[in-house]
Amino acid sequence: MSGRPRAARGAKAPPPPSPPPCAAPAERGPAARLLGERLRRLREDEQMSLVDAAALIRGSASKLSRLERGESPPKTNDVWDLVRHYGLPASGYDEIHELLGQMRLEGRARKYEDLTPDFLRRLITLEGQARRIRAYETHVVPGLLQTKEYARVLVALATGAGDPVDISRHVRVREERQRLLYRPNRPELIVILDESVLHRPVGGPQVMRDQIRHLRSLACGNASDAHIRILRFDHAEVGTAPGFPVTHLQFADGGPAELVYVEQLESADYVTAPARVRRYREVMDELMERALPGRESVEFLDERIEEYERRASESDPLRAKPAGV
Fold first, then answer.
1. How many CB atoms lie under 10 A from the CB of residue 160?
2. What average pLDDT does range 198-211 have in this prediction?
3. Confidence band (pLDDT; 50, 70, 90) for 218?
4. How many CA atoms lie within 13 A of 293 on its CB side?
5. Residue 297: is its pLDDT beyond 90?
């Protein structure tokens, strides 16, 4: 005999257990939805059914339907197979490249969602969609321009994290954000740095020297469309500059023309009201006028590099030892 209790005579057997609920589809970003919508319109223009179009990528109608709703991450080969069969003109390929690139950026942001708050993940997505980014920073080098060591020091200070793994993952988020500066359809980036950013010795003289060298390389190189401008202490009207960081993003046709991101200690304000956006845009224009021109900004970076190089030499006993001693 088994130890299982018997049901009383005439009693109804208990209903079978309910199957576990289906997992909700993973939330996709706006690029996945836009790409899916674009593919759906192309299919409908060709008057193809889901079944017929799905056969082009050796899939089912339900798979293609999920792709068109932005619920399922598409394979890049599947997207281009569909684009070719739908007969999209070559002039439309840049849009597909752009959406696929944005999807990869959104995917990387979700990979680190336990480290990045919602307001920052939204900014990462918007940076990937922008055609022009103007940023004014008052305290530290912006994340898009930070070297690994500079970022490592800031992360450790901001989070109090002593775990090297946690610090490394935070730094990796910043490194992956920076990839957009080197892609073919990269945005133009203009960064206005308050002079104090370059005097604040984050991580010590060697870290700062290398960080400013990186800024100079970006400002003088052709690998990215980055422009670095310095707002000096001694400017006559510097007192009217904001005391907080401001990021102004402008977008191509097909969405909002522009918005402003103002980050606080534990939150951020996304400004979209036209009157407020216009005021922030005017502020950014004024800061650009007051900042040093490009060549003079690079010369100032050179001065700071020399200063931190001197400090690094003085802090290194071997390098500071007089000759012959």
1. 7
2. 96
3. very high
4. 2
5. yes
Cα–Cα distance list, 121 to 31, 189, 204, 267, 295 (Å): 14, 19, 30, 12, 34
Tens of pLDDT, residues 232-265:
988 666 556 788 999 999 988 655 689 999 988 7
Neighbours of 274 (CB within 10 A): 10
Taking only Cα atoms into account, the Rg of the chain, rounded to an integer number of angstroms, comes to 27
Task: List Cα–Cα distances, 261 to 183, 197, 247, in angstroms.
Answer: 23, 20, 5
Nearest to 251 by CA among 230, 223, 277: 277
- Both tokens of 5, joined, read 């209790």
The pTM of the full predicted model, rounded to 2 decimals, is 0.67
Nearest to 175 by CA among 209, 214, 131: 214
C-alpha distances (whole Å) from 134 to each of 76, 148, 248, 266, 322 are 31, 22, 5, 22, 46
260, 276 contact by CB (below 8 A)? yes
